[in-house]
Amino acid sequence: MTTFIHTADWQLGKPFSRVDDPDGQALLRQERLSAIDRIGEVARERQASFIVVAGDVFDSHLPPPRLISTALERIGQLPVSVYIIPGNHDYGGPGSLWLSDHMQREQQALAPNLTVLLHAEPLERDDAILLPCPLQHKKAATDPTAWLRELDIAAFDDRPRIVLAHGSTVNFQAEGDSEDEPGQANFINLERLTPLLPEIDYIALGDWHGFVQAGEKAWYAGSHETDRFPKTDQRPGHVALVDVRRGGSPQVEAVPIGTVRWIEHSETFVASAGPGQLNTSLERLRGDAGSKLMLKLHLDGYLSLDGHDALQTILATWAARTIHLRVDNQVALQPSDDELAALTTRSDDPLISGVAQSLTEALAAEGEEAELAAIALTLLHQHVRQLEATA
Ligand SMILES: [Mn+2]
Which of 111, 142, 314, 371 could share a disulfide with 75, CB 3.0–4.6 Å? Predict the structure, then answer.
């Protein structure tokens, strides 16, 4: 039996341009590098013989030299041999980063344990045969695994055979594409590999960012560190720990690696009780992630003026506690009768009373006018509270 680690889609250098704070962007990029060290810990603890990275190690086709060196230094610290295929983000071929002088020099100097599999040809180890399907272009017009059908895989001895490929196993293009039109780029046709499956022991896939079994003997490991708000059935932030033997079924375990938690949460408020409940939910969801949190909130329902104030405080707190807070705020304002009375019947403050009165009327209207009135009323309410606090 051979034990190895399958990972993919590190996408080092990913810019995270939707995160507004440059420090947050830098932190997310740094976490993707740090996660490589944790893969090394798993390799050590679980006695993996080698690591395969099924494409998209780098986010871009031409990463800056500093990032290449940093990544190679990290890879060089891994306790076992590492095999990489180019993916669609960091495709191979002439002029690619993999053939640059800097890459070649630094690989020798910093990561002699690394082999970049640039060609579709078998690599024989003592304990496994690797069958790489590297991408030579951003969009490969033909199935990158097609060469395996020309190969006499059965001629190999009884070492397990492991395919490495990068692309989608689902054809998203409409049926009935004519023969002259190019098919979906980087499409891995698992059906056409099925006749070969008796000769193949594991298919290590990259491109999808969640840990998922794509077919018989075929898995996506997903990205090692989460890089987007995942859908519920996706499991990013893992590597696959794989046990293979020739002619057997692979045993595949998802081992958690990532530390940044990406949480999407919806909350519907009813009157003023809501914000406290949101805080409780977020505390629970955060778990042990600390400040390594990406938070996306969908808020709706309605809140009183006090409720809105409390919500603003909670949002400001969580914006500070997280790497990034994104809020889709659809919460309507519904001042309580007491709150309205306190604003509209200020005998010593006829100006505020008058403004509050007309804003209350505008709030009952529809559309933009009501939205602006809600904002203005909230500000007026805050202002009055401040006046009272300093009186
Ligand atoms: Mn990809």
Answer: 111
Distance of alpha carbon 214 from alpha carbon 56, whole angstroms: 18
Alpha carbons 5 and 52: distance in angstroms, whole number: 6
The pLDDT tens digits for 213-255 are: 999 999 999 999 999 998 877 889 999 999 999 999 999 999 9
Q: How far is the CA of 294 from the centre of ligand 1 (A)?
A: 22
139 Cα to the center of ligand 1, angstroms = 10
Three-class SS state of 34: helix
Domain architecture of the chain: domains with CATH:
2-256 (3.60.21.10), 260-334 (no CATH), 336-391 (no CATH)
Q: Which residues pair with residue 265 across a beta bridge?
A: 297
Of 370, 282, 366, 357, the C-alpha closest to 327 is 282
CA–centroid distance, residue 166 to ligand 1 (Å): 7
Nearest CA to 147 among 188, 182, 184? Answer: 188
